[in-house]
Task: inverse folding
């Protein structure tokens, strides 16, 4: 789907909010989710790490700098998600 000017102007939080709205609607009366905070972090963190690593061409030092975290922390997160290369 092509992006429009209005799509580009939206902050990331807009899309996160819309995704959460769809998620809650999809529950359709089922039991409420458990540990939602951790679930959302895991769902966001892995693709974030993947995209930043791709953007930095696999350079972990550059990726850690872009993320604002220590390289050791990045390496631990990569192991946790089986993304270590």
Result:
């Amino acid at each position: 789907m092509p992006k429009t000017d209005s799509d580009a102007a939206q902050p990331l939080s807009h899309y996160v909010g819309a995704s959460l709205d769809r998620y809650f609607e999809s529950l359709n009366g089922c039991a409420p989710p458990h540990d939602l905070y951790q679930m959302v972090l895991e769902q966001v963190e892995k693709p974030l790490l993947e995209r930043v690593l791709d953007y930095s061409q696999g350079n972990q030092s550059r990726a850690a700098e872009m993320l604002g975290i220590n390289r050791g922390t990045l390496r631990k997160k990569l192991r946790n998600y089986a993304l270590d290369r």
